[in-house]
Amino acid sequence: MADVRELLARLYPQSIKINSGRGGIPELTNQDIAAALAFVPAGLGRDLLEYGAWPDGAALRASKISATIHRLVMDEWSAREQAYIEAKVERGLVVSLSRYHRAALDFKTRSSLDAAVDEARAHRWPEKLEDRLEDVVRIAVLDLFGAEGTSNRDRAKAMGLSESGYREVWAGVVTWLYCAMRDAEAEAGRHLWAALQGEDAA
């Protein structure tokens, strides 16, 4: 994604030359790049693409971008909580019906229901995620746009946690958000390259 960010960051010069490795595009003007950017679907990916290229300009929409990222995380938290609730309800319903009908629940079925609950529980995020949401977003964004090679120790220190505490509770959340943002930006970048080359991103 660095090459796409560099391309956008060089939007303001009158003319630039690039080579895509496939024959390239002989010459691009700022008008070419701006026109191609218009074909990138609006959304988090485009916002992140622009933020990586023009942090100062994107900062004007920082509150909107931040709200989108926060909503993304909390929606995922809600989905994981719902999956856990549904797994418990399913198990409780099957167990209750078996007792009502005085029918023994076979070991395989009970084991399967228990496993589903255990799996959903393991995928849950911290119950009070909102208390640390600002930290999670800040660290994931720094990983996306900052210096590479940030360690769990560095992330734990930034959150005021022990490294083991970070790994056990928060690492999964930060990693999920980082990957979600990375993939969204990459998809926006594919749309930009496709528009520049007159192709379909799909």
Give the rounded overall mean pLDDT.
Answer: 84
Strand order of the largest sheet: 1-2
User: Count the strands?
Assistant: 2
Distance between the termini: 17 Å
Runs with pLDDT <50, length 5+?
Answer: 12-26
Beta-strand percent range: under 5%
Described by the principal axes of the CA atoms, the overall outline is: elongated
- The succession of helices and strands, N to C, reads HEEHHHHHHHH
Main sheet characteristics: 2 strands, antiparallel
Task: Work out the helicity level.
Answer: 55-70%
Rg calculated over all Cα atoms: 23 Å
Helix count equals 9
Task: Throw out a few tags for this protein.
mainly alpha; 9 helices; 2 strands; 202 residues; two-stranded antiparallel sheet
Explained architecture:
By secondary structure, the protein is mainly alpha-helical. Helix content is 69%, strand content 2%. It has helices at 2-9, 30-37, 44-53, 55-58, 62-100, 107-122, 133-145, 152-158, 163-196; strands at residues 15-16, 28-29. Strands 1-2 form a two-stranded antiparallel sheet. The longest helix is centred in the middle third of the chain and has 39 residues, at 62-100.
Write the layout of secondary structure elements.
Blueprint (H helix, E strand, L loop, with lengths): L1 H8 L5 E2 L11 E2 H8 L6 H10 L1 H4 L3 H39 L6 H16 L10 H13 L6 H7 L4 H34 L6
Antiparallel strand pairs: 1-2
Helix pairs in contact: 1-3, 2-9, 3-9, 5-6, 7-9, 8-9
